[in-house]
Amino acid sequence: MTYSLEGKVALVTGASRGLGRADALALARAGADVVITDILLESLDDDETAQKYGPMSQVMKSTGVVYAEKTAEEIRKMGRRSMAIRMDVTDREQVNEVFQKVKEEMGGIHILVNNAATLDHVSRIEYQNDEFWERDLRVNLTGTYNCTKAVWPIMKEQNWGRIINMASVAGTIGGFGQASYSTTKAGILGFTKSMALEGARYNITVNAIVPGIVNTEAFQMIDPKMRERMIQRTAFKRPGEPEDIANAICFLASDHAKYITGIELNVSGGIELFTF
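Given the sequence above, the corresponding structure tokens read:
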């Protein structure tokens, strides 16, 4: 089964690395033109932004793990249209400007992947950083809201749309020391179902991917002993690969999934199952 997305324009947030980058490349391979958005671009010397969004952004920038423009170039080499745009999902005015720019230059937006997220705030409740709590709400949950709201009139006008939100097993089974992250990811599931109800009359499907542990750059930064504990929690005894998530996204974006909306699709290797 192939998922043809020819003639579609996709926008992926947080696509400079990890899952977002894999999603963008997979959508392009399926035939879509793809817009890469992220707070960090290789050509921008923007230490202030990296500092603003915490340790993970700082490490990725300082180590050169930012591939937004490289990803756009790879997509253009496939014969697809692509561009990389700096966008902060918490800045509503900027989000609206970017989405209108994409509509004008690319002819529409048919697929939105709300991938941008923070996940470096890990501590027990008594040690939770209040500023990071607010940051996680702004980026993970309100950022998804901002982008969905911006794309909504475009998709309504087209009478066609696919929105895929990135949740997490932390939002379905919780995560020790992950109060802010788990809360935002659980919120995304409720938001997804509400938008699915509102979107159906306009031929807009809205679904959520629920990943488990995935072998991204961020996962490799975790202490090796903790990584092994997490891997052993899965039914397969191995982490997923970014392509496992990307393939599920391509399916949900395609006409093969035209009667699927409001679901939580676990792509988690069975980490939520009782394993022993």
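The domain at 9-266 is CATH 3.40.50.720 (Rossmann fold). Try to locate this feature in the token string yourself.
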